[in-house]
Structures are given as structure tokens and as C-alpha cells.
Amino acid sequence: MSEGNPFHDPLRFERHAPPCALVIFGANGDLTRRMLMPALYRLAYDRSLPPGFTVVGNSRSAMSDERFRDVMRESVIQFLRDTPFDERIWRDFAEGLYYRAGDLRDQGFYRELEKVLASAENERHSGGNVVFYLATQPSLYEAAAAGIGAAGLQQSAGWRRLVIEKPFGRDLDSARDLNQKLHAVFPEESIYRIDHYLGKETVQNVLAFRFGNGVFEPLWNRRYVNHVQITAAESIGVEGRAAYYQESGALRDMIQNHLLQVMATVAMEPCAVYEPNAVRDERAKLLRSIRILREDEIDSHAVAGQYGPADIGGEQARGFRQEDGANPDSQTDTYAALALFVENWRWAGVPFYIRTGKRMPRRVTDIAISFNTAPFSLFGSDGQTGLMVTTPNLLVLRIQPEEGISLRFLSKQPGGGMRLRPVSMDFNYGSSFGARLPSAYETLLLDVMTGDATLYTRQDMVEASWAVVQPVLNAWAGRRFDFPNYAAGTWGPAAADEMLARQGHAWRKP
Amino acid sequence: MAAVVNSERLLRELHGLWIDLGREAEADGGPGVIRACALTLIVMTEDAAGVAETLAEVMREHPCRGIVVSVRPDSSSVHARVSAQCWLPLGQKRQICSEQIEITASGATLGHVYPLLNALTASDLPVVVWYRGARLFRSPETRLPQSLGSHLILDSGQAEAPGEFLRELVEVCYAGFRVGDLAWTRLTCWRDKIAQLFEAHVCRDGRSAMSEVHVLWEGRTGRSEVTYMAAWIADALGWEPQDSRLCVERARGAGDGRLHGVRLVAPGMTVAIAREDGGKVAVTLNGMLHEAFFPERSEASALTEELSIVERDDVYERVLPVAARLVRPGLE
CA angle, A336 as apex, A332 and A338 as ends, to 5°? Predict the structure, then answer.
């Protein structure tokens, strides 16, 4: 809402989307059904959408508007979380849902789309503003952008924005190529690359925690921080999507995008103002500061893993190679770990360990900042000194599943003498307590409609993060791994433990 | 219950309560409980039982040390007890618990209570005083000293003479208190929708040429929320409260005085919001109708919103004196 609106009450009013239309390419796919449409419904429920909000869905399947509305209604009912489904709100929202089948390579489709958008502008007062959301296969991104451009749909009296989902390319060269093709149609400021981890309330809270308090930032550097561990573990396997997963692997699927963005959030410098490009400038700067691994460092700083079969609690879990659609000889990494270093004055010499994997003991994403120990032990015995070394102060930012922040420190044991023991204090169970947290897609959809790109990835951030993983991808492409090298239900391959042991460190068990 | 109440004893009992909760959780083999506190909420009420449910709901978003001062004319001495309110968030393993101290006193013995309250507020956290009942705020016997807490929450919708109450609130604000009125809070959805409609391109041009505004209520006499709505619109448009373009009138014959709807008219443009059943409102923008959902504003939901406002509410403090000056037939 604009500051010039005399009715605006910034203390009490939530954000609202301006008049606009949303075109979803790939509207019949999983992403739309599971994430986008439930998020849009929730925004409608919260009164965050403008009257006359229009969605135009597209896929290749033929479907009428009515059928599309029915399908989306069923999806919302099935995938909605923490929100009652209200028939009257749905009916009102669904009046703005339209569907046009078409091939993204067929220019005729874009002429039809143009008519629908013109109708939305005239009859539903969309203001000529349109978000084009590519919820389709990455192989169609270029065709979609080219089609929009050829039809002149990227320009209007209002604004036009393009949203694309990861993966942004398969490697550095293809990412640059994709960016070039997109820029032929849309300027960078109109391109919104989604990394839904940045939309998570808990990741946003890292910035609030760091820069909203005076006590932690003075410690947030190489003088006090010993190392940082970032973990994104899943307990499930590929869940029938082995054929798709084989094309990417853990390094591409999680580290190149989500976890490097999380690392940037943890390690970036404070920006002068909390504005989209100021924040993204600092994230990009951090990503560019990560030292690129040399070829001779790959083996000591990067570990690939693939889960094998195991008995987990009486249930026989299959190995990756036994999953449906998986190549029995697959070299896909279902686990990846990196030891990275940031070359700047704040972080020089501090290892950032990042790991991600499928079929690990539990689902958890967290950031653990391990601090340097006290310079010497005041309290005498070797045992106490050893305790101080093995249990340094640890600040853990839990992203999921149970958001929270905890601090571990040593405290005196009750009783005679001065014997210490570690205690862990949870001092913030999220910013929410009982409030409902918006889903990442609710936040991000509202952001793109209001033109807030803070949580979206920029071209330079994408290319910088590809530059970090590219040497590892190159080395692994020519490698034949001895897979599987960790059993399902364990924390990953022994090589990952050895990688940290060489630095005198050990992986936490989150 | 104790015949003599002192703060040290109450704090010891609270401490013991947490130890017991921890032990119970340990015995169950569970992960324990979280003791959460973001503020002290002092509640002055004549109906402690009625407030318990509200507090249980409010504490989910605003875990606090709740100090409920139950004013009962039949109480000849001061009694106090401590308890904890716990709940398990969906999908979580640990209960989140807030603590509560309930003090029962009569008007005559309240003088013994005030020093207790000073000692019982949680350290280093904000203190909010909620007068659940206009009478308790207006009576010198039950009005707490400003030193205890200068952030007050009241509800002019419950006052017998709301117009007079609003004028009193103006004086309270001038005296340096920070005031929140739940009657104003209950209007947030309405105000938000009006602001949103104005943001739409088609409304923007009509704003400066607004020819009339209608604020309608249901029933014989309009409540203070109706006065607030009219005052807010007048203030936003730069109109005086008695401007003849501002029409405040009855919509229906029966009803409890709550806001029914708002209609804003300019040449070639009409924006209207009207209450329907079941929490829905009909929103009409130049003939295009759609429905919106305004959740029912229970006492708990209004209080939850009000506690979320941690700084001074400039909009409310600007509108309050306008509302105090707005005099219309049918509004008390």
C-alpha cells in the first residue's frame, strides 16, 4: 500500500497485492497444485489479494475454465495447511481463474493469452500488471520467455514480471546462457528467481537475529567463531522420483542454490538499508568471496555419497540404486558435503561445512555456529579442560522442523567443587509462538506482486553460487565413485567425517 | 489460598510450580516444557472465570506473566494463587507454558494489592494493563497508578456512555498513557479493506472529490466502533467531524449497535462494504461485487492484535480526539 494513501495504517495492516494477473505456465503440474494454488487461496483468505485478481493457467492438456477451477479446488482442499476451506471465499476467488491450453513453442497460444490478459485488464481491473510464473520444466524456460517477447507481452502500461523456479541452469555456462536468453526479453529487475528457502520465516529470522540485536554481531567473526556447520538432512529417499533426481544430485539440487543462499545469509555483511538490492548486494558479495576450490583440493574439501539399503527400525529401506527408475549403476550423489572458506576480513580461516543428504536419520535443517573455546581452563583438572574443548559454546539456528534458537554453554554442576557441565538453553521458540507462519510461497508470491525482490535470487548471486560448485561438478563428472558408501538411516559417508577430522572438527548430530 | 499475601511467597510458589512441571515432564519421559514470557499482562476484572479462556488463547501468541486482579465486592481479604497455562503447538513436542497469578480482592482491600503488583511484574519486560470493564478504569478505587504501567487496554464498546468515555480517553492520552481500545481494534479488517480499495487505480482519482460518506450501524444505538469508523474516515479525508458530507445513520431496525457498513461516494464512483452473515462482507467496487471474509473479532483476537502493537499508535491517537468530538443522533 502506498504511503500517500491516507487510509494506510502500517502498524496494523498486512501487505496487499496491487491489481494484477498471474499467468502460470505448468498449471496442471505438481508445483501449482501443491504449493501455488493453496498459497494463493490463503492470500485470498487473508484479504491480501486485490478484488478482481486473475489467474490464467496454462498446460498442454485441454481443459475448460470450469474444469480447471474444479481441479484447483480439489488441490487446495487436499494441500491446504492450517487454514479452513471456505466455500464462499473459494467461489469468489475461483471467478478469477481461467485456463488456456497451449504449447509454449506455439505463437498462437500467446495471441490467445494476450486476449485473456486484455479482458482481465478491462473487466477485472488488473491494471495491466502481470506476473508470468514458469512452473514448468526448465527446458521450456527459454521458449516461454521468447514466446512472451515475440508477442510483446512483456510490455504494457503496467508492470510485467517473470518468475522462474530452480534449477537456474545445470552448470555455470548454462546458467549464463539462460540469463542471456531471459534478458533478451525481460530486464533483470523484472526477473524473480525463486529460492523458497529464502522465503522461509526462519531463514528471514537469521537476519533479524543478527542485525536486530547488538549482542551477537560483535562475536560474528573469525576472532570468536571456530567453524560453522550447515545441515539440510532428509529422512526420506527420492520417493519415486529417482529418474528426475539422477539428472541433478544433492550438490546441484540443494547446495548450489538453497544452502549457499543460507550460508550467504549467515555470513554476509550488514547492509546500509533494508532494501532489496542492498540486501542482495551483500549476499552476492559474500558468495563471490567464497574461495573457489582448486582441482587438487576437491578430494579433501568435497565428499559425494549415495545411500545403500538398510534395515531401519524393522523396515527394509532400499538403496538409491534399487529405487524405481534409478540406474542400477548410478553415480548420482544423494549426499554431498563441502568445506568452504570465505576470503574476507571477517571470516578468513573459518571453515564453513555444508552437508545435505537423503535417507539420513532425521529431517533437520539447521545452522550451528561453533565458537572458540575459552583461552585456558581456570578450573583445574584435565577432565575439565577436555570438557571445555569438546563442548565449545554452540549457537544453533534451527530452520526446520522445529524452529528455534539455542545456545549451549558450560555451567557449574550443583554441589561442592567447581565441576562444569554443558547446558543448552532454548531462548527463542521462533518469532511466532502460537501465530501461524505464512508458507514460503505465500510470502514469495506476495513479494513478487508487490515488487519486493529481497528474497529472490539475482543473476550475479546465481552465477557466483554456480562458480563455487562448478569445480566440484567438473571433478565428479569424470569420477567413478564406489557407491553406495553410506547406509540409509546414517549421517553420511565416513569420508565426510574424515574431511572434518583433518581440521580437528567433527560433525554434530543435530 | 493464603490469608496474607506477599510477593516473595508468590514468586517462590511460581518457582516451585516450574520445578514441578519439569519433574512431571521428566517422569513422562518427554522433552520438558518451555517457560515463555514476553510481557506482564495485568488484568483488572470483575469476572476472573470469564477472562481465563481469553488469556489461554492470547498467551499462544503473547506468552506472558498474567496477573489477574479479580475485584469482588464480597471479598474481605486478599487471596492469591499461582498457576501455569500450557499448550502444545501443532507438530511440536514441547509444551509452551505461561504463568499466571490470580489475586482476589475487594475495592477496600485493593490498596494492599498495588504494592504487590510492583514486585510481581516480570523483570525487563513491558507491562500492559488491561481493564476488562470500563467501570474498573473509571473508578479511582480500581485505577492503577501510572508508575505500574502506562500502556493501557480498554474497551469503549462496553462502556455505558461511550461518548463520554472517549472524551476521558483523550485526557488519558494527554496525561502520557499509551491507550489501546478494543472497539478500535475490532475495526482493523474494515479499515484495511477500505484502504485497499482506495489503493486500486479506479478509486485513487475519486478520493479528492468524495461527495459523501455513509457509515451505518445496526440497531437502535450505534456503538463506539461506529464513531471510530466515522472519525477515521473524516480524519483521512481532512473533514471536520460535523461535516454534512459524513452521514452516520442506522442501517436496520434490529441489532446490537455494531457497524453494518460503509459507503463512499464520489462522482461516477461508489465503494461499499456491507456486513453479511457468517463473518462475510460484500464488497462492491463500481458495481463489481466480491465477498471477503472478516473473522469474528472475539475478545481474545482483538486483545492479541492490540498486544502486537509495541509502539505508539499514531493513527489511533490522531483519530481518538476526532471521535470524541463527533456527535450524532443515535450514537451515545
Answer: 140
